[in-house]
UniProtKB/TrEMBL annotation:
Residues 8-47 form the S100/CaBP-9k-type calcium binding subdomain domain. It comes from the Eukaryota. It comes from Chionis minor. GO terms for molecular function: transition metal ion binding. This is SNTAN protein. InterPro entries: EF-hand-dom_pair, S-100_dom, S100_Ca-bd_sub. The gene is Sntn.
Amino acid sequence: ALGKGSDLEKAFATAALVYNNSADPEGKLSKAETKRLLQTQFGGFIRGQENKPKYQEIISALDEELENKMDFEDFMILLVSLTLMSDLLQEIKNMKTTK
């Protein structure tokens, strides 16, 4: 659908597709499924974050709230939060690309 979309549009479309492929029929993920999805699909951004207090807080919340499910909006907020604290983001910021 976004064959001619921008790189950013394609990135968000991919995030939505990955989320939708993992979500239940109501379009939500359990906290355990969210954690598993982060580990399998977002490992580069969360690798090395295990000792950071904010990361531990986020993961603890996923472990503690077994009943509650996460919708796409909350999932995207979580992705952005994890991205902003990631060491990988700093590496990306330090890179310069040319076209």
